[in-house]
UniProtKB/TrEMBL annotation, chain A:
It comes from Methylomonas methanica. The gene is sufC. PANTHER family: ABC TRANSPORTER I FAMILY MEMBER 6, CHLOROPLASTIC. Keywords: ATP-binding, Nucleotide-binding. This is ABC transporter ATP-binding protein. It comes from the Bacteria.
TrEMBL record, chain B:
It holds the Pfam family SufBD_N. Residues 146-203 form the SUF system FeS cluster assembly SufBD N-terminal domain. InterPro entries: Fe-S_cluster_assembly_SufBD, SUF_FeS_clus_asmbl_SufB, SUF_FeS_clus_asmbl_SufBD_core, SUF_FeS_clus_asmbl_SufBD_sf, SufBD_N. It comes from Methylomonas methanica. This is Iron-regulated ABC transporter membrane component SufB. It comes from the Bacteria. Belongs to the iron-sulfur cluster assembly SufBD family. Residues 211-453 form the SUF system FeS cluster assembly SufBD core domain. PANTHER family: FES CLUSTER ASSEMBLY PROTEIN SUF, UPF0051 PROTEIN ABCI8, CHLOROPLASTIC-RELATED.
Length: 249, 482
């Protein structure tokens, strides 16, 4: 469903991704690990269409479409979801309002009518429960005054309601205590199905104890330098990244 | 500049949809201002003698006054001799008697503006006075209001029918020499609305005036006077538009409100005068003196304004809290874009005991616009236990605009409590991207954020106006679920 071929990306002429290749099939969970500054967030931003990145070479195909041609909101409506490493605050706009506006934007794109207010509340409340959040969060301004962990949980709540096809999680585990990590992981696991794919960026093996990946990749110096099964993550936990740097996959 | 910064700039610039001109036969005075012009004006309007005296006194005073110091505003000198002081559609010199007599072309104009004057078509519960350039062309639901004892008519008509009432209150809140523009207005005002709510009456419908500038090179000098007698309630709305022209046009209004014991007046404005083009060419100079006197005990006045138009806005709707326990409120959204300038705020003058005031100001600045909040909270020695709370928030869209806040506080009474909070924030590219990543267009994202920012003020507007205000900011209603 997602095919990244030889992707080269620069920020202000500085090369960040240098020939990244990655294929994800429907229903697969891929983990990307790698040292700080390797380009993991850059990859998530390029896939979701953030401004400021220049693709100098390579291609990204998503469900048969040239993903890089699409405006960011179209990518989102086509099912690409990014759980941000640093979710922003939007004062004055309530969480539930954003959720409804986002869901209706998706539905409109699919030719569906706006969601019924009662149905919407039912869906939202069930997802809030799944993530063990307080309903009060729905009526607070988006992420305003949320703790780091609450922001991350809020990102997964949005994913649960928007039901994306490709879910990119950028360090969703960092900033979570062990209980929150378990709850968020259960939330993510409940979203797994035969169609939905995940690209999970993380530093830590512990997330992968909860969410079992199909494939683990190591991203270093702008490239995938090694790919393997879940056991690769354990090896990285023991040996660090340095033995892989400078290698090609 | 990055793509999304350009996008923000593009998004906030909307087209002005009320910029058309109605071609009509008109009676227009040649440009120029002297005592003869004022005499002619008073005569055309068939005014009582005291009114001419009032105008001449104001004019003589005005001639001695220096034009105001523009504070934060940049403005070219205005040539008062180049302006025409009267312009009216030809057939309506005498003022309309009934809707059937109104020129169909005028009815059409208002219909195009979304203000059908046909009583059947009107939203139930709103009476409209339509002021076109210098005259009122129609007032709806007069009969129904009269049954309730409410007087709602053009001020020119009130001068004929209720001269004593007008004489008693006109200029009692804003004296002729109050400031440069108030003096000018007192000398040359043409029309506006007059409202009197008798003792104990709750006005059965919302009253509204719709101001339209149509003629070129004319000034509009609107005069509105609202009196709420003891224990009465009224909600009054005001809307404004003008054609797109390359020249600046002057709108210098005076609005006076009087609330007697236990009376309440709610005054809402959606101001959408032509703001000029994106290079700052043309647009209305909106110089307005709006003041309310809470004369009676336990009286209350609320000003709510949404200011999106005009090249320059200079406006400080104020409350003089004379009566003990009286309450003044000011809720404001001022949006400036391109080269628009707004210097707006309020004055809360506490004189009575236990008087309370609330100020909520939301300034939004985009393009290269400048937006200034200027507010005065004054507590006299007599105002024991006076309270004020001021909250003043600015939102910047893009990085070439400016927001300024000038709160002035004068307190002479030690038991008073005066609080001021201010914030400035900016719509960031990260916020926009976040919203886009959730499937919203950047346009909807800006609207959503701006609307969220203005929420506290919009909820003070009567329903129909809240909808109009949101449409004006190009946004959909927030909080429908929450
Ligand atoms: N806006 C930017 N301007 C310049 N360099 C940037 C910018 N954003 C990220 N970088 C650089 O790009 C590299 C990759 O960053 P990032 O993708 O955030 O790494 P990771 O998520 O793997 O830690 C880093 O060297 C970082 O400093
Ligand atoms: Mg990162």
């Amino acid at each position: 469903m997602l095919s990244i071929k030889n992707l080269h990306v620069t920020i202000n002429d500085k090369p960040i991704l240098k020939g990244l290749t990655l294929d994800i099939n429907p229903g697969e969970v891929h983990a990307i690990m790698g040292p700080n500054g390797a380009g993991k967030s850059t990859l998530s931003h390029v896939l979701s269409g953030k401004a400021g990145y220049t693709v100098t070479e390579g291609s990204v195909t998503y469900n048969g479409k040239d993903l890089l041609e699409l405006a960011p909101e179209i990518r989102a409506r086509e099912g690409v979801f990014l759980a941000f490493q640093y979710p922003v605050e939007i004062p004055g706009v309530s969480n539930i309002y954003l959720l409804k506006a986002a869901l209706n934007a998706m539905r409109k794109h699919q030719g569906l009518p706006e969601v019924d207010a009662m149905d919407f509340l039912t869906i939202v409340k069930s997802k809030v429960k799944l993530l063990q959040m307080d309903e009060k969060f729905l009526y607070r301004a988006v992420n305003e005054g949320f703790s780091g962990g609450e922001k991350k949980r809020n990102e997964i709540l949005q994913a649960a309601i928007l039901e994306p096809k490709l879910c990119i999680l950028d360090e969703t585990d960092s900033g979570l205590d062990i209980d929150a990590l378990r709850i968020v992981s259960e939330g993510v696991n409940s979203l797994r199905n035969a169609e939905r794919s995940f690209l999970m960026i993380t530093h830590y093996q512990r997330l992968l104890d909860y969410i079992k990946p199909d494939v683990v990749h190591v991203l270093a110096d702008g490239k995938i330098v090694k790919s393997g099964g879940p056991e690769l993550a354990l090896e990285l936990e023991e040996r660090g990244y340095s033995w892989l740097e400078g290698q090609a996959a | 500049m990055s793509t999304s910064a350009q996008e923000i700039e593009h998004l906030i610039s909307q087209e002005y949809k009320q910029g058309f001109v109605t071609e009509l036969e008109v009676d227009t005075f040649p440009p120029g201002l002297d005592e003869d012009v004022i005499r002619r004006l008073s005569k055309v309007k068939n005014e009582p003698e005291f009114m001419l005296e009032y105008r001449l006194k104001a004019f003589r005073h005005w001639q001695t006054m220096p034009s105001p110091d523009w504070a934060q505003l940049k403005i070219d000198p205005i040539d008062y001799q180049a302006i025409s002081y009267y312009s009216a559609p030809k057939s309506k010199k005498e003022g309309p008697k009934s809707l059937d007599e109104v020129d169909p072309q005028l009815l059409d104009t208002y219909k195009k503006l979304g203000i059908p004057l046909d009583e059947q078509e009107r939203l139930a519960g709103i009476a409209v006075d339509a002021v076109f350039d210098s005259v009122s062309v129609a007032t709806t639901f007069k009969g129904k209001l009269k049954d309730a004892g409410v007087i709602f008519c053009p001020i020119s008509e009130a001068l004929q029918e209720y001269p004593e009432l007008v004489k008693q209150y006109l200029g009692s809140v804003v004296p002729t020499g109050d400031n440069f523009f108030a003096a000018l207005n007192s000398a040359v005002f043409t029309d506006g609305s007059f409202v009197y709510i008798p003792k104990g009456v709750r006005c059965p419908m919302e009253l509204s005036t719709y101001f339209r500038i149509n003629a070129a090179n004319t000034g509009q000098f609107e005069r509105t006077l609202i009196i709420a007698d003891e224990g009465s309630h009224v909600s009054y709305l005001e809307g404004c538009t003008a054609p797109m022209r390359d020249e600046n046009q002057l709108h210098a209004a005076v609005v006076e409100l009087v609330a007697l014991d236990n009376a309440q007046i709610k005054y809402s404005t959606v101001q959408n005068w032509y703001p000029g083009d994106k290079d700052g060419k043309g647009g209305i100079y909106n110089f307005v003196t709006k003041r309310a006197e809470c004369r009676g005990r336990n009286s209350k006045v609320s000003w709510t304004q949404v200011e999106t138009g005009s090249a320059i806005t200079w406006k400080y709707p104020s409350c003089v809290l004379l009566g003990d326990d009286s309450v003044g409120e000011f809720y404001s959204v001022a949006l400036t874009n391109n080269l628009q300038q707004a210097d707006t705020g309020t004055k809360m003058i506490h004189i009575g005991k236990n008087t309370r005031s609330t100020i909520v100001s939301k300034g939004i600045s985009a393009g290269r616009a400048q937006n200034t909040y200027r507010g005065l909270v004054k507590v006299a020695k007599s105002a024991e236990n006076a309270r004020n709370h001021t909250q003043c928030d600015s939102l910047l869209v893009g990085d070439k605009c400016g927001a300024h806040t000038f709160p002035y506080v004068e307190v002479k009474q030690p038991t008073a409590q005066v609080e001021h909070e201010a914030t400035t924030s900016k719509i960031s590219e990260d916020q926009l991207f976040f919203c886009q990543q959730r499937g919203l267009s950047a346009e909807d994202a800006v609207s959503m954020i701006v609307n969220g920012f203005c929420k506290e003020v919009f909820k003070e507007l009567p329903m129909e106006f809240a909808v109009e205000a949101q449409a004006l900011l190009g946004i959909s209603l927030e909080g429908a679920v929450g």
